[in-house]
Each structure stands twice: as structure tokens, then as C-alpha cells.
Fold each of these.
Amino acid sequence: MTETVTVPKEEWEKLVKEVEELKQMLEDYYKTLQPILYIVKKLPDLLTDPTMYKSLTPIFTLLSTMDNINITALNALTYGGMTCLDKAIKQAMIDPNKPPEFSITKLLSDKETKIALGILIELLKAMMPCLYDTVRDQTKP
């Protein structure tokens, strides 16, 4: 027992259009996921490649040091840094018609700039030996 159903032409065209749109979406998803599929297929080879491992060692080290970071202090530093950056941007943009002038002698004679550069240099001096040793230890053959 087969039944014949008559569908109005407008409804038929609407259904055909929806199917074409779905087909296009599926093709777009396939194109988007194709590189990910390629990486997943190559992942076992990449994980056993010594060169890849050595190049990713700093990232692995960074992840392992994340356990030792004081998250509260890091959050406070990040929030404080963003708040201060927002204030500094608003202060610098007081008069958009007059861009700030740059003078190295003024910059180096400014007390706040000297303090900021001093803190930055001290942080770099304190961090670099640790970073150097970690990278050296992790990249030994």
C-alpha cells in the first residue's frame, strides 16, 4: 500500500532550500574540522618526535610551575594591573587632539618612570637565572 502525497510547490522549494543550506553547513563544518582531524591523525608521531618534545619542554615546565604559583597574588596582580592600565589609558587620552610628546630626557627624569623601569629590571634579573636553568635542564640531550 503506497500513498501519494501532494506537496505544494512553495513548501517543496522551501524544503529544498533548507536541505541545500544544511548541506552547505555540513561542508563548512567539514572544512573547519579537517585540519584538526589531520593533527589528531599525526598526534602519535608528533608525541614520539624528540625534536617536538624538546621544543615543547618550556611549555611543559610552565605548566608544572603553575602548581607553585600563589593564585591569590597572581589574581591581585592581574586585576591591579588591568585597573591601573585602564586609568592610565583614560588619563593619556584626556585631549585626543594633542598627542603626548615623547622626550627621552623627560622620560628618564620622571620619578614614576624610574621606579617602574627599576621594578621591571629587578623582576627580569630575578626571573632570568631561574628561567635559564629550567630551560637548560629541560633541554639536555
Amino acid sequence: MLKHIGVSSACIIWLLGAAPATRTSSTAPASLPAEALAFPADSLAVLSLDVKRALASPLDRDGGPAAEAVRKTTNDLRARFGVDAARDVDRLWLALGAADSDSLLLLTGRFNRAQVGRILKGDKRDPETVDLAGVKAYVVKERLANKTTSQAICVLNPQKVLVGEPSAVSRLLNARHAQRRSLLTNPTLSRLIDQVKPEADFWLAADAALLKRTRLDRGAPGLPPMLDLPQLQDFLITGVFAEALTLRLIGKTTDEATARNTSDLVKGLLLLASMNAKHPEWQKVASLVTVAVKGPGVQLDARLPYALLAKLPSSSFRATRKKDLPKTSGND
């Protein structure tokens, strides 16, 4: 699904790997541009990443699977959509849709529409120029997973680029024109986004139950084992590219007893990881993670050196697929 809009799924999966009452927010989080606020109300997850900070951090310098995922994302943006991420993109916002065609990518930075067109034409993409809700866009065709899709690359102004299937882009532009804040009508994502602090270099807000059910039922990659927890209803991951990578995960369950069971399960997974003789670096990772229970919520905190992240095997960040899950009898 993520590949349909040009953001490396490896990057998102890597970020994944690392309890107030539900309400609908009436005020916009200061960090979200109008186009992100107009993301579809039925989005499963929303991701924000400070690309400049990621590329300038030791994460990119020290290598490893995390750095590889970030580089793949920046390379994909240029190769597929004519955007030089390393030079022009400051931050990206991604809405993961309930259907492939609903996912949207918003980039902020410095963009030139004619230059984007030249890159696409230079790569022999043969883009078509169309009008979407009154805005000019380049539309290119791609063959992904034995399916041909159309992607619209819309330079909204010198500071913003919107990418997605043409119908999804048109819907968002119409919502923006009507000043609708569709995303804020999603009570789960709105509540989570309200908790994001301004200093976060990246964050991921997700309806965990809906995300797992929708994606696994379609055979798409699910969540990594650390987040594939049966009682986890939703979660927020935030991170800062400081001297070490600072991560926090806040997950919500149904009640405090369930939260304690989930906490024990996470601690068990960390213990098993620390006993991995083939990859002893996991013992160090496990020692740097703390787990706490706060009411129906579970909170994980970690401060991970970049050199340690570079040593972790790529397989650590692979998500499960439905075909990999054990067979069960009866109805779930």
C-alpha cells in the first residue's frame, strides 16, 4: 500500500519497530498544514517525518537498516515523482488509507513545478498534465504488484507537493477548498495527534486494531512483532534525532489489567530478544528500553545509540504477513 504513493514501506516499518477520554479535537494541531488536516477521516494511520533532520542525523551516517530505509524513501521520491528529497524536502506527511487508492503523501519544502516535470520527462515517465480540482498536476502510470495505477504529482505552490491517486488528490483539494478538517473528525487519530509535542522529529499515530485487520486481511505486511499485540487498540510513536535516537511509544488498551498483561508480554519479548545468541546487540537494546503502565495505557521509552541501530539485522524490521501467521480453528 505504501509503495503506491512512493514512500518506502521499509521506512514506515522501521519506525513502527522501534489515555484521556476519546474526543474530537476542535482546534488544529499547530504542526499540521491545511492539506494534512484535510486527510481522509477514515485514514488508518498518519505519519510525519522531518526529512532534513533525518538525513542530517548520525542515523544516515552510521548506516544499517534504518538508514537504508530513509535513503530508499528519498531515492523513491526522485525516481518516481521528480522530487529531490535530499535537496528540496523539509518534512513529509503520509496518510495511510483504508484502501490503496485513498493513501496520500504531502511534502513541504521548496519546489519548482517546471523542474518536477523536467525530471519526470527526463526519466521517460511520459507524464500527462491534467486539471484536478482547479490545480495542475502531472499524472504518471506505474506498474506495481502486477497492477497498473495512476499517480498524480501536484505542485500546490512553491512550498508544497501532494501525491496520490488522482481521485484521492481531487477529494483532498476539494476538502481543502471548503476548509474542511476531515482528519480531526477521526476521534482516535485526533486524540493521538493532540499528544504530539513540537520537538518531535517524527511521529506515527495509528488505529492499531483497524490497521492490523485491514492490512492483514488483504495479505499486506502487518505490524512487527513488538506491536502485533492483540489488546493494543491504538498507539502513538514519537522520536527525536538527538545525540541518540530517542523514542516513545504510548499504546492504549481496554483497561489497566489488560495494560499490565500487555506490559508483561512486551517485557517477555524484550527478554527473548536479549537471549538471541546470533545477534547479541539485542541484549543492549533490551537494556535500554523501559516499560510502564499508566491506567489503560502502556508506555515504552528508549534512547538508542545510532551505532547500535546500525548493527541490528535488517530482518528485525520485517513485518509479518497473514500467510506467516499460525493457523487457528474456529471464528475470530
Amino acid sequence: MKHFGLGVFTLVLILGLVSCQGGEKQQESDPFLHLSGQVLNSKEEAVKIYYGEEQQELKLDSAGNFQGEIPVSRLGMVTVAHARTGISLYLGPGDRFQVNFDAEDFDATLALDGDRLAENEYLLEKKHSFKASGVENWMEVLALPFEEMIAKRDAAYEEVRASFEAQAAEGKFSESFVQMETAFFAYEPLLMELSYPDYYSYIHQIQKREDIPYPAKEVEKRLAAIPTDDPSLLDYAFYNTLLERFYGSVAQELMRVYPADERPSYQAVRWKVIDSLARHAEIRVTLKFSDVKDQLSYRGPVHAQEIISLFEAENPSEKMMAKLAEEKARWEPISQVRKCLISALRQ
């Protein structure tokens, strides 16, 4: 069984080869991503743009044209979605990019142009390759016996990785993109392994986790081996998911140590683990902020006030406090409706 990691070839790419291309394009004076394009035969009124946790609609004119400015804060993944199709692009502030397609045959007619074209054409190539191999559909590949799943996954990833390394060696990609894709190949495959029991048990209707043919201890060891204190990896969703799983796993193990009548809340134990193991402040704050967001999403601001107060008491940066204010503001319209309903019921 092959396990992906940071190969020597890829490390050379990061440390040396990409430096020959003159560095990143800097357009700090322009805070917007400029998107435009045309959608033929559309039955929709707009395309939807997803960036970070935000979204924006760009209206289609009578000819299917769209254009707009997206206030992205940094370089990263941006999704252009239309009906049930879409494409994820690697773009940032100051970039100008065009997306054209026919809504009746998205894959065959999709045409891209603009800044970071090499990176985005590679991402499209990767998407098509994963789709052709079957690994894009996790419901399909994670239904296989574990060793068959690993073999299928590794073959698909090796093919795409070879293309990535060849193009990176030619200097086609920016340094930041090489770093992102290197992290993808190092950590994304492990997510499949960690997700395997949930998918396999659901697909095959297996009630008991121990009845799933799955090397749980080996996978947990690989999870424990990931770097847990590198803030440069926090930009990548696949790494953040692994980090969440790691600290959650340690917290669950620690919960079993406490006597039942003395056991603290899982949240308290989890934050104790984070404080003990995460040496970098940015890692600690990011993990805890993620917990606050989860509580807000699942329980709302009233029931999440305890964890919000704990987070605020730790005096995070102004940046994180601003992000917390944004999350709380999302609930303000709902809170106002709730107040109106309560007031109406009391009358």
C-alpha cells in the first residue's frame, strides 16, 4: 500500500524550481477579482460565485453574458456555479478571468481565459482525470473493499501527480500554487481513509463499526503523524479537516480516562488538548474559532453564548474578533424575527 507524502522531487520544486519564475504577481492595489463570461442556452438568471464562506450572484444579460467584481481577500479557490454544474478556480485579488460554456453541455464547451490560466487548466485536467478514474465519486470508490479502494485511489492520484510535477518543473505554476497542490497530495488521500468507515457502513448497511474490514489503528497512526503546528497549512481545507480530526481523536481518548462522575464536557477537554499540543497561537485560535462557528451553526447564538464568551475571554487578535462579529451578524436577522415572534405571542 502506497501512502502519499512530501516527496523529494516536490520539495525541490518548492525550494528551488519555482523561484525561477519571478515570484507571485502582486496586485495589492486592486482588492477585487474581476470575473466575466458567457453562458449559452441558460435557463437560469445568474451564475453563483462562492469564495471562502461568502457567495455572490452575477446576473446574466439577454445574451447570457455576466461580469462582476468579487471582493476576495486573498488568493485561493473560487467556485463559479450554474444550475447543477460548476468549476473551482485558483484566483485572487486583481486577477481577471473569463469563463464561457454552453449550459446544455458544460464539460464539452467549457473555455477558460485570463490570469493564472496554467493553474486553472491543470485543475480542470485534474477534475476530468479523477472523474474518469471514478475517485471523484466517493460513494463509488469508498464502497470498495479497503485494499481495492487504496489501489484505485493511488493509481488515480499518481497519474495526476505526475502531470502536476511535470508542469511545475517547467515553471508553469506560481509558488503558492505548488505549495497548495503539494499539500493536497500529502494530506487529501488520508481523508479518504478516515472517511472510509462512515461511507462503507452506510453503503453496505453495517451497524457496528467493528464489523467493517478496516485497519483503524494504522490509519490513526497516519493521522497522528501529520504536522499539527504549521500555520502555513491552515489555508487548505483538506488539512484543516485532518487537524480537526486529530485533536478530536485525542480529546475522545482523554475523555475515557476520566471517571464518569468527574468527566468534564467534551468541549472543555478538546480545548485543553489544543492548549497542550498546539504550540503556535494561530493554530490554537483557528481551531477554537472553528468550534465557535460549529456551535453557532448547530445551536444558534443564544445556546452558543458560553463558548463565545470563553473564546472572547482568551483575548484573540482583532482580526479574529472581527471574524467572530461577522459570524454573529449572520444571525442578527434571524434573532430579530425571533424577537418579533415572541413579542407577537405575548400580546
Amino acid sequence: MTSINAIRFNEHQGAIATDEEMTIQSEVKLPVSDKVRNVIPDSIIEQYGLVASVSTTGSAPFGVQLTDTVRRRIRDDHDSFILRTGKPPAISKSVEDVAELAFEVAAEMRKDYIDEVLLTRYGFSRKDYIKGFYSGKDGRVDIKDKTVLESANQMIVGKSEYTRHFSRNHGFIAGWSSVDNFRMYYFSLATLLLEPIGTFFQASGSGLDSADIVFGEYARHLPLDQRRGDIDPVDGLFTLIKALNMASRMSFGCGGYPNITIFDGKQKENSKKRKEIADHRAKFASEIVYAAEEQLITRSLASECIEDTLVKDKPFHESEQKILSKTKNLRALSRLLRGYKRSDGISLADRRRK
């Protein structure tokens, strides 16, 4: 259960925002999940300016293994090129290359998992199933039992209770490179699909329906030329956080601190082309947007503080003091952010006294 969201501002800039909550058997929730991770080694970022992250929903261990494997393969491929030629590649990989590698690794992981289930239950693999036999202790064993054949087929296509959950893993790849600029891709193991994200936004996970309402309403007011790649980054970040806030409030399995990753290919320093914000600044940004939604601060003030905190990297306590001094109702704001229901800061007992 999760909410992962991506947005493209223009050909060089975009962002991902995820929550951090995971659920165990739909009964226990824990704010411990790492749903968006960098897959480019630091040395390659410094050399080429290539930045990319993979964000996943489904199994938390799947996301960790996927991103670790992709990062290792990118590093190994780079090192092997140097060993063969005596010099590093002249140009970096593209974001499309990274997306294809991530999908390839994810598909391999799915195949390996299905093989483990088949071998554990029946003693044969996917390849054996296709051949129609496997080698047992006493030689060749034909796979002829109709019940076994049907059960194995359901496992392979991801419809069995033993493999269905693994096929639900899906996610995004987003990043910037000097080859193809900022790009976003979506992949799914249920349909074995990898494709470029066709709109300027994408939401997924259990928070999909809630987040899509926010994105859809925002898109409805944008002309086509802006949707194609002329979205103000601060305005886009505000909407991205608003969508995540909505999912965290309304959708099962979403919550905790936001994790916000910003891509900016316009930065001159390669190390600054990707920035991850998952500390108190991210929580503060979600509160800024919530306060603006409830009209306790102005939208212009909220945008200013979002820019200062997330884009310009100013200490968030500066924006915090600014908001506290300019809010329309400090008591109402304080109570709202502490979880009270909205009442303009006046309790029912106080209303009755009046």
C-alpha cells in the first residue's frame, strides 16, 4: 500500500513524491518504507551528470533489491567498459537506457521468484514446464497431471495465490541525462509493460484514486502548451505535494513523512542535478500545502515558502516563522496541524458561552 507520484515540469526538470508507510497483511502499518531510491553511482553522477531514481509500489523488499541490482549493474558496466578500452565512455547512458535496465532486472526477479515457487511445490522450473518434463531422482519425469499443469500455469502467469502478489509490483523510473533530458517511465510486472509516461504526471499505488483527482483538477486548468512542458516548478511541486497529502488523508496504507526527489538538469554542478528531501523539510512542505488548502495562509505565501524550503534550500525555520507571523488565524492553524477538526480555533464550549 503506497502513494507514489511523478511530475514533469519541463524538458529539464521534474520531481517524485512518495509516502513512507507500509502495511503488514493489511493489519499493521509502519512508517519505514523506502519507496524511491537513487540508482546511479556517485562517480557516474559527478562525471556525466546522469541522475535517475526508481520508485516502486508493492513489496518493499522488491524495491530495495531492484534498485540495488540496477545500481550495481550500471557501475559494473561502466567499469568493464574502462577495462576493455582503457578509457571511460565518451557519453553517459540515457534515462531510457536506465529504464530498460530496471525493467529487465524486474522481469528477471519475477522469473526467479516463479521458479522458486515451482521448484518448491513441484520440483520443476518454468523451462521444465515448457518442455513438458524434468529430471528427477530416477530419470525423466513427464509433467502430465492436469491439476499440476493448471496450477503451474496459474503460477507462471501470476494468477496463483502464491505468485499473484509479486506480479503486483510496479513503479516509475525518472531522471535526467545529457542524452535525452528529463524523462519518466512506468513499468508493471502484472502486464510486463514498460512505457514512457504520456502525460506530465503519473500516480500509482493505493493512493492512485485520491492523487489522480488532484492532478486531474490541476491539469484541467492548464492549456496544452503548458502541459507539454512549461509548468512552473514551484506550482508543480505544490500540486505534487497536494496530491500526496490527499492520498495520505484518504487512502488506505498511505502516510508518514513525504519523500520528495527533485530533478534539475539546469544545475551546473552535476551533484546538484538530483536532490532528495525526506526530513523535517518534507513534512513542513506538506503542512504548508495543507494550510493553504484550508485557506489559513495565502497561496502566494505557501508558494514562496515551498520555493525557499525545497528549491533554494533555506533553513525551514525561516519559512516557519514567516507563516506563523502571517497566518490568518494562528490558533486554527496550530490546531489543524495537530489533528483537530477545523473550527477556526474556537471550541464548541466557547461558542456556547458566546
